[in-house]
């Protein structure tokens, strides 16, 4: 701040000195014109130290050490107490205070007062030794008026510069404060999400992994017949599949929440995009005795983030399988209109109670159980909702308890 004020002050004083030099030349006070020329050169050097050499300390001490000797010279050759030197005293003092640290305030104030008292004393009691430069009262009035106006302008500009800097810094502090609040809010959100992920991993992954370990130990150490071994194999497959799906959800969700992934846009048809994913989901459905029917009314071409779309489809179908009884049915229907694609997933499962349906897409970090006690994380539908929004689309859910549910996804085809 001090450097900026010092720069501005030196520029102001350069203009002030030029005006005073021109005025003293008009009234014929050429001694002061010479002194003003010397002052102008000193101020230029101070300005160079500040702007070019970036040497604030030397500029500060040079300015302070030259100011009062120049004022003494001006006092002597400008009619002493009858002249306007003491106006400049106040201006110089204001400048020194504005560019000095607080611990130097007393020094410069005392110095200013001492010089003022000494010069005022000399002007009163040794007046005969001071040259009389004014020719008439009009010149006294004019010199005082111009000097006072210059000093008043200098003080006003100085205070204006300080005020402007204060307002600017206050605005910057306010902006930084808002940025810090936002950063703190984001950090708290990320930490909260991390805590949730850790909680999920510690509770929802630990138990299935322990179950897998125990089953493998049982296979290794126990004397089992073929039917029991096949049963344990089936259980291992179920546990491993559920654990993998759970881990996949967690990783997808954490990546979505905590990272800014680069958008990867692909252009493809939906039948080709869904083929591999649906084959895996058919196997999962078959293990539960559920029929997964796929109907393409059209095979639209899309241009979008295919990973997000696959994530939504995978979660919605897995969710439908999870909450459908053995022997039930899940239907995937794909259609499109001019601007968007419509994907509907319908099941004849247990349905969703009305009180839960209104908050179905909210984050609910707790384990949920399917019709075969399949354990989930409560993140799947929230993850679908977030990714649908990222694709510029929306998901609508409807359900009848005991009869089944329907989820309809509408997203732009990406060719707008």
UniProtKB/TrEMBL annotation:
Domain Histidine kinase: 200-415
Stretches for region Disordered: 396-416
EC number: 2.7.13.3
Swiss-Prot/TrEMBL catalytic activity: ATP + protein L-histidine = ADP + protein N-phospho-L-histidine
Superkingdom as given in the UniProt entry: Bacteria
Keywords: Kinase, Membrane, Phosphoprotein, Transferase, Transmembrane, Transmembrane helix, Two-component regulatory system
Membrane-traversing stretches: 5-23, 29-46, 58-76, 82-99, 106-126, 146-166
Top EC class, one word: transferase
Coiled coil residues, start to end: none
Presence of the UniProt keyword Phosphoprotein in the record: yes
UniProt protein name: histidine kinase
Organism from which the protein derives: Negadavirga shengliensis
